[in-house]
From TrEMBL:
PANTHER family: ENOYL-COA HYDRATASE, POLYKETIDE BIOSYNTHESIS ENOYL-COA HYDRATASE PKSH-RELATED. Belongs to the enoyl-CoA hydratase/isomerase family. Gene3D superfamilies: 2-enoyl-CoA Hydratase, Chain A, domain 1. This is ClpP/crotonase-like domain-containing protein. It comes from the Eukaryota.
Amino acid sequence: MDQVLVEVSSQVATITLNRPERGNALNSDMVVEFLNLFTKVEEDPSVRIIVITGAGKFFCTGFDLQTSSTIPEELSNIFEAGYRFYKTINDCCKPVIAKINGPALGGGLGLVFTTDIRIALKEAYFSFPEIKIGVVPAIISRYIVPEIGLFKAKQYMLTGEKISAEQGVLDKFITCIVKDHEELNNKVNQYTKQLLNPPVAIRTIKKLVNLIGSTENEELKKDYTKRIFVELFRQMNYEKQSRSKL
């Protein structure tokens, strides 16, 4: 059975984590399979939007600890694979929607934080359970801490407490919640229509927001924002002038 499924329809690629018997926990083979499929749909010009969801009752329960090693070199490889996994999704030039069909735990919640729009079933919940077994959410912390802040990050990571979908909205890391699967599908469809905007602008906005949120270097931020301001407005005005001559 394929551990990751992909379906493309009407310019939208839906990628499904497909290990329901393990809560869609990620293992090494699954990460490789996911990245291969994700890269293909990102590079496919017919795909404008990517949706990530899970099979069964869970969205994703993070990395499968049953497959973990005690050998430092192997653990280092697992870290590098995880780092690439989250960075690839976060840096995607196309809008990525998390269709959260159930609980997202640990690295599964980290996956949520790398997406752009996050729609969750009301019954879904979230947590960082790593603390309960004496480890930390190391790889995903770079995406979580800047978004929810030091105070909330410490609270959730130190306690491993259960976070309801409603609380996720209040803490501003969930876009909206829905009551059932039908409404979940409808809300995802609604957002896919809203996201069918010019690809160059989409790509630039994603890069801009990621840059602004990841650096304190004011000169770097100024240089980049100035460059895209000049480039995009020049292109827009050029197209206006070209149309006026027709």
